[in-house]
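U., I forgot to send this yesterday:
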Amino acid sequence: MSQPATSVSGLVSGIDWDTTIQQLMQIERRRVTLYEDRKSENETKLNLWAQIQGKIAGLQGAAQNLDRRSEFVVKSASSSDSSVVTVQASSSAPRGSHTVEVLALAKAHSIASQGFDDKNSNGVGDSGGNMVIQVGDETITIADADLSSATTLEQIKNLINNSADNEDLVTASILDDGTDSGRYRLVLTSNNPGLDNRIQFLSNPTTLNFTSKTIDDAETRAGWSGTSALTSGGTYTGNVSKSFVFTVATGGTVGTDAIQIDWTDSAGNSGTFAIASGSVGTPIAVAEGLTMSFAAGSLVSGDTFSTEVFVPTLTAAQDANVRVDGIYASQSTNTLENFIEGTTLNLLAADVGNEITISIDNDKEAMKGKVRSFVDAYNSVMQDIYTYTSYDDENEAAAPLLGDGFLASIRSDLTSIVSQQVSVLPDGASLTHLADLGILSGGRGLLLIDETDLDTALDERFEEVVNLFSQSFDSGDNKVGLVTSNEKTQGGNYALVLNYDAGGLPTSATINGQAATIDGLLIRGAAGSSVEGLVLSFTPSGSGAGTVNTTFRLGKGITEMVATTAAAIGDEETGQIHYAQDNLETQNENLDRQIQSWERRLTQIEESLRRQYSNLETLLSRMRNQSNYLAGVLG
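Result:
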């Protein structure tokens, strides 16, 4: 409340009118204080409702995380040798054991060019035209305009990697083999393994050679003291690049003395050859088509020299080959999906003859953990409802939402849904309530889990537990399957009549006599009906036109029922939380208007009091002056 700019003097009366007015205004202001207190109480309630809203959303999410079989069922999968193959299993994977033998891993194709002395200055040549690289069924084109005889290894590497055509097809890099000459090679590596992703050149206007095997010049090593000139040659017949290192075992003069040379290669092979007297400049076979010749001069015992042989194919493209339960399979990746239903096999190493055992089972502990999370989310809501509506007898204090009808309605809805029988279960189901699993209602509306009963149910009636918790479906005709449904779809037993043409495509369908929508091989439930949101699939029989006249069952499961109830409670337009919050917000708006109205009225009252007391002081002043005057006259 703003203070007036003037105060009332009490010099005549001796009364502190400002203090008096303030005290009187405090009395007048009690109604505003009452309104402000009510508004503060409503703000506290709104904060509590926001917390409840969050808990309801958490319950809805926890329920939705279990309302489909694929979300609720957890399978464990193990490999007897995880260094060779690992395995993951989805909910659809059947229990059982399988044998896997990894015969070969898929490998990505990698090729390299001949060597260049410098990657930034030596040109790769250009005879004109585009360079076109094929990787599988795709091509990468380096335009003629981007190439010249001066284009370097570094530049052409960048042209390939940055090409708009190169969408995760191939990676170009430069290999430095550390030799004295021709040390830099352009390497192309397919980004995906398998024979389908081999690299080929459809056109190559450069001098880059990715096809010919080469033998590098022989190079003497540190400490060389001989005078004979060395020449490597021949046609390399091996399949891997490697280096040969030669040591003069018995020295002498080439052409005169008998000289012996020992050699080893980087693959661990070794051998010896002799330079017979008179063999000046004559090629001498070493291994795999490699030859060495020696000019006239000396070779000194202990001296060493070397040469490199190079194969452009660094890694040959290869498909993965595996034998699963005696059945051979070949594919371009090392990840086998759904060869065993619902499983993914990750091939890590080839190990011919080693049969790995893959074991798949229900992971009941993981499923129990999901049940606990669902119960915890439910209990969190119910604990808040209890706390916010309780009465403390000892302190005679009521919780802020005690007696709130909206909260009572929410409690009733939730306790009803978790205690009722789950409908539309398969015929003969013996588990129909949460209580049948050992999930019981306790004090304060909380759920309690009997771990022994839950274990027994999972061990002895696994499928019934799954059907009780999550959505279930079965059809009288295996050509009809479930694709999806939503919160508007009601569980139930339904009659389906489906007509299809000679090509196997559905032409019309009804569900419980009501027309459904045909969308290719999908049948969609009618909007506004009990099957709104339902989508069924149809698998053609391939036997011409016909009609399917069958029934199907759709069970919703307790978690979908809870999720639907929580969604209704939290609906932004029609839910109890919305109405509760809207009611409190409306009350506060009304209180704000009343507070503003009273503030204006209080201002007027205060101004009136100040006028009255100011007039009183004026009157008293006049009376005192008159009294003083009379006293002076009368002497």
